[in-house]
Amino acid sequence: MQLHESLFRKLIDITSRVKTAIYDGDAEAIKLLAREHNCVMDKLNRAGFSKDTDLFDLVREANNQVGGIIGEIRKRRDEISRGLRTCVERKKMAGAYAKNAGPARFLHH
């Protein structure tokens, strides 16, 4: 139980730090924490399944936190995607305006 408990607590700690990094917009920290997360998950996989029912609440907390972070990352990704689409559309509109209503066009009339 001690190994599993230690690893799940580490996972909760990493997840908490990821949440902070997301709010700070720190992509490098997120990348490093993702590596730490993968390392802990590998250790959990190697440790195997624990039948210790005392770990249930800890496992549930870790699962809920990781699920919440995944939701935050998706939300942030969607916000960035919307911003990029808006930027591209504005650039297209400005290009179309410059092409069709630019000052050079009035010189030829």
Explain what you see:
The structure is a single chain. This protein has 109 residues and is an all-alpha fold. It has four helices and no strands. It has helices at 2-24, 27-47, 56-101, 103-107. Helix 1 packs parallel to helix 3 (56-101).
Number of strands: 0
Strand content: under 5%
Show unreliable segments.
none
Task: Give the helix proportion (percent range).
Answer: over 70%
Q: Give the biggest sheet.
A: none
Q: Which secondary-structure class do the elements indicate?
A: mainly alpha
Radius of gyration: 24 Å
Instruction: Give helix and strand order, one letter per element, not per position.
Output: HHHH
Assign an overall shape. Answer: rod-shaped
Distance between the termini: 84 Å
Mean pLDDT: 87
Output the keywords:
4 helices; 109 residues; rod-shaped; mainly alpha
Mind sketching the topology for me?
Blueprint: H1 2-24, H2 27-47, H3 56-101, H4 103-107
Helix pairs in contact: 1-2, 1-3
Task: Write a concise synopsis of the structure shown.
This protein has 109 residues and is mainly alpha-helical. It has helices at residues 2-24, 27-47, 56-101, 103-107.
